[in-house]
Please model this.
Amino acid sequence: MAAILDRVNRGRLEAFSDGVIAILVTIMVLNLRPPAGDSFGDLRPLVPKLLVYVLSFVMLAIYWNNHHHLMTVVERIDGRVLWANMGLLFCLSLMPIATAWLGPNWRASGPALAYGLVLLAAAIAYFILTVQLLRIHAADSRLAVAIGRDWKGRLSLVAYVVALLAAIVAPLVAIAIYIGVAVVWLVPDRRIERVTVDRAGPPG
Amino acid sequence: MAAILDRVNRGRLEAFSDGVIAILVTIMVLNLRPPAGDSFGDLRPLVPKLLVYVLSFVMLAIYWNNHHHLMTVVERIDGRVLWANMGLLFCLSLMPIATAWLGPNWRASGPALAYGLVLLAAAIAYFILTVQLLRIHAADSRLAVAIGRDWKGRLSLVAYVVALLAAIVAPLVAIAIYIGVAVVWLVPDRRIERVTVDRAGPPG
Amino acid sequence: MAAILDRVNRGRLEAFSDGVIAILVTIMVLNLRPPAGDSFGDLRPLVPKLLVYVLSFVMLAIYWNNHHHLMTVVERIDGRVLWANMGLLFCLSLMPIATAWLGPNWRASGPALAYGLVLLAAAIAYFILTVQLLRIHAADSRLAVAIGRDWKGRLSLVAYVVALLAAIVAPLVAIAIYIGVAVVWLVPDRRIERVTVDRAGPPG
Amino acid sequence: MAAILDRVNRGRLEAFSDGVIAILVTIMVLNLRPPAGDSFGDLRPLVPKLLVYVLSFVMLAIYWNNHHHLMTVVERIDGRVLWANMGLLFCLSLMPIATAWLGPNWRASGPALAYGLVLLAAAIAYFILTVQLLRIHAADSRLAVAIGRDWKGRLSLVAYVVALLAAIVAPLVAIAIYIGVAVVWLVPDRRIERVTVDRAGPPG
Model:
């Protein structure tokens, strides 16, 4: 009964998170307005906006991907997990405005700083979510094994802090660091994938 | 058969409600426009808008959370429950415009009054939803036990009425009351959580 | 196997339809912009927009409700059903723009005509969807019994045609007819509810 | 266990894809703004925008439909499939802006070219998704049989390249080719439907 209940709860938590992330991914594109002219060259000013959109899309896709992998090993959730998850969604909901500001102003310090702060806040919120999940899972649970030392999460936090400092003097360095973090995360979370496969037996 | 049918119905009701709430939470962020300038200080005028967004995000998250907890103990739904739920979603759908108006005008009476009216309408709609659910559940059902006396719901209604009166002369007092109600609700509905755990046995 | 496959298909069709309708319901509210001023009286010009929004919200809710009831008795779907459903969603997707035009121009013929055309198109699309479903269900299937003579659907079609003619000379009469149709449909589809209950036995 | 896990994974991948496509379909309609005037004739300038919207709606519906049919024969997914799917969603997310540009500028080369590039990118992304799926399915799996030679996919790629060349000198020819491709795809993927039915036995 408890297991079924938790599956229902987890299912609805996932569905809600999916909904919010799917909408965030999509409304970012509303900031890409078609050019006033009608020649192909008029698209040129859109290029930096499009590239920043790609970066934000990848970042949100990484969060969806990691959230998805994390949830497959979650055995139960409670009120605090729900709220930690809401905190993560709130931080991610600031991505569209940070993206809209950075797009046309990618050479300025302010938008690079704001973008990094949103990324840092989301990373901290994700960390809090894992802490809240570990609190209600056994030390030898698949979740605990899967999360393990979380070097990627810690590395990201350090990288974002460095990027924020860099943003003040060299915004492009900050953006390069954001891209670097995305590349590191782009590989789906092997820790969890390994555990899943080990427990589930070889696919096939 | 009836039970299966009701699970299907309930599932789709939840999915639709989740979809609407997820979209409402997200489109509120569309009202946060990036500043015209590119220095970090240009974000300052966004601060009150961001704070009102936080309040509205928390309010919608509370409704999602309570709706989620409520639905876990629902055994059946009918046409009137569907429409009561639609009424709730309609009231919540006015949150984005109320938020967009209050954000930059948080010192004025009008927006504080409108924001409170939307909150009051949503609270009444939620109350009607519980009444419609109680109508088709036994007096000793998990739902009936879980809802119990609903002191929080009643307290909120009283608080909103007081806040509406306060808004006319002191908008900030009204906003303080809205925040206070959010804090009271922030704790997930222990009444229902307790029943769920009691019937389900200890987790694990 | 076929049954399971159809349940999966039906589930995803419902989920997609729910998603689209949930978004349509919600983005209509984006057309309600907060007033420029900050006094409560500044909301007055919003009143007609809000009332038209209520009507459109109810119309979309009716479609969701009827779609929901219809799907509970569907046993299988095929490609043509999928496309008939897409046709319905397309027609419904024109509700936001029709609503945005009618809101501030409720005394003019053009918007009342356009609004009615969208409603008529949606009603025809829903009718086509039921025809496509009946094609692949037995004459004594729960679906066929539930749809029956569909006097409401036919009445709506006639009412919309009358309303379109009325819109040319008296837009308010057309709007009154739209409201009348909504009231008739507001009661959830008893035909299907009756069949569902008969087959499922009394609830409880 | 692996099968259950994959069903869960597949389910959430489908739900996320459905969410994104449902939102894309719907936000395209935000670019259809109501006319400034209030006479029915004021809708005339909207006609080309509406027709381009119909084309884009059909294109996205085709992708949803094909994605839906494809997923019913998928037995497992992995990280690379998730990312190939994200790539497809990214390409599709550019449809609204391409639609918004082509709508009022359907006689110009630039928008026809941009629209075609988005369609080509989406077609390539879908092809990559099938390649990634085939990589982890047996040569005699239902998926492999269902995809088969994929002459429609190859034809589309060739057609889009031809259309892009045509767009430079004759945008209307390019648009005609886009419409032609849509018509070819409009029929749901019989390859997969046939396999599904064969394996599942006759419906009924």
